[in-house]
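Q: What residues go here?
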């Protein structure tokens, strides 16, 4: 497997010792390919899955010409150009209960929204403008031909794609699929992601903390982030900082997963043996990304499984996951196109310390003041402070070239939660 490094050395802007964060994201995205396997699932089970084939509409939507308003279906030719026209009420057309027969000259039909336009009729006059006198309906002048009629196939023509392959299926798509009368759809297999934490200092929850130990929290944040992306998760637990144990974990992970996510062991001091190991087992572009937090981060491949070696710091794990791994796993899942997390520009009310020459991802709180959205930094920004991540509702992205941010300056934010 020499292809990975060959592709990278040709890529412009590739400097494994200090890669621009935007460039890193693009390189990862370009290399990862979607899982090939496809399965058919029922409409409900399709939520959060990725469509593998276009959904072709088997019918016109709407299926018939129908009324957009409550009113009267008429033949436009019966209406006089000037003055009122009196028509004879011939029946009703309600949603689900059509008018049978054909509209004769000088006739109209009472019609409700969604009601099928009777044969012969071509126009709907809204009920608010007519005058009913027994079974005579008086229509004012200046109606337009075809008004208030929704045409069959106007939303979607039979035989055309209703949803394109690559779509991440949300409630709107489930409804759309059901509206076409389809019971199941083709989706990609969920990608299988193996992960483990590394560190001699890590204790698992349920055991008392020894001297100098910390609980393994990354295992839970990573679990949560993978689950949210709809991945199948293989949890390989905590692995000690021991080359043989880490090698065994890598082999075990690569044998069963499409991608491997690890945390810890990539910073100075620990990096060398892990890097050596990764290089021996597969291919590694060991990156120092020009960013904070998350400067050390490994990306590579071991036996056909993509490898993301995230830093150990709990906040750095989350930031690197959102900025790099998320996109890669969406692509692996078959999402197309993979859109970057949306960013919005808002004024920042607190000063931000920032060094030019690296992208910074700080924890922020978006809030509304005087009808305007603004952001402020959370308190402690240390990359070990997981609480800052919990308090935050967005990431403040301060671009590569920028320096300190003064209060009132505009910054980019990525909200954590969206409408799904
Ligand atoms: P490392 O990248 O392995 O040098 O870890 C950097 C920092 O993150 C150290 O303070 C570690 O104790 C901490 N850390 C590493 N892995 C975890 C983990 N799984 N859960 C919580 N903290 C961790
Ligand atoms: Mg460590």
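A:
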């Amino acid at each position: 497997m020499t292809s990975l490094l060959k592709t990278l050395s040709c890529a412009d802007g590739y400097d494994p010792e200090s890669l621009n964060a935007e460039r890193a994201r693009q390189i990862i995205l370009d290399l990862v390919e979607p899982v090939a396997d496809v399965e058919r699932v029922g409409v409900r089970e399709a939520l959060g899955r990725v469509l593998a084939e276009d959904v072709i509409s088997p019918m016109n939507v709407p299926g018939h010409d129908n009324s957009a308003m409550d009113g009267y279906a008429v033949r436009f030719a019966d209406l006089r150009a000037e003055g009122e026209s009196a028509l004879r009420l011939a029946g009703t057309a309600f949603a689900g209960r059509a008018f049978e027969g054909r509209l004769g000259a000088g006739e109209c039909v009472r019609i409700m929204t969604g009601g099928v336009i009777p044969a012969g009729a071509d126009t709907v006059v809204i009920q608010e403008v007519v005058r009913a006198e027994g079974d005579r309906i008086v229509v004012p002048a200046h109606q337009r031909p075809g008004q208030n009629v929704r045409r069959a196939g106007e939303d979607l023509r039979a035989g055309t794609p209703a949803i394109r392959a690559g779509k991440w299926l949300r409630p709107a798509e489930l409804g759309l699929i059901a509206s076409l009368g389809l019971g199941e759809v083709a989706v990609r297999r969920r990608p299988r992601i193996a992960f483990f934490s590394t560190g001699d200092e890590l204790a698992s929850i349920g055991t008392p903390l020894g001297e100098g130990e910390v609980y393994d929290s990354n295992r839970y944040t990573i679990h949560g982030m993978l689950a949210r992306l709809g991945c199948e998760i293989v949890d390989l637990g905590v692995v000690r900082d021991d080359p043989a144990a880490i090698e065994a974990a890598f082999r075990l992970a690569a044998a069963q997963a499409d991608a491997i996510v690890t945390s810890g062991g990539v910073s100075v001091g620990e990096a060398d043996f892990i890097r050596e190991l990764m290089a021996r087992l597969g291919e590694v572009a060991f990156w120092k990304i020009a960013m904070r937090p998350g400067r050390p981060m490994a990306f590579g491949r071991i036996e056909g499984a993509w490898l993301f070696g995230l830093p150990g710091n709990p906040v750095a794990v989350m930031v690197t996951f959102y900025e790099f791994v998320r996109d890669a796993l969406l692509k692996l899942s078959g999402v197309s196109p993979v859109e970057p997390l949306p960013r919005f520009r808002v004024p920042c009310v607190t000063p931000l310390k920032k060094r030019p020459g690296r992208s910074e991802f700080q924890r922020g709180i978006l809030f509304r003041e005087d009808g305007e959205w603004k952001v402020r930094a959370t308190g402690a920004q240390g990359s070990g402070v997981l609480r800052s991540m919990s308090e935050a509702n967005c990431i403040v992205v301060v671009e590569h070239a920028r320096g300190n941010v003064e209060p009132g300056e505009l910054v980019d934010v990525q909200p954590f939660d969206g409408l799904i």
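A: Context that may help when evaluating the design: Helices lie at 3-10, 21-31, 171-179, 218-228, 243-256, 271-281, 314-333, 386-391. The chain has eight helices and 26 strands.
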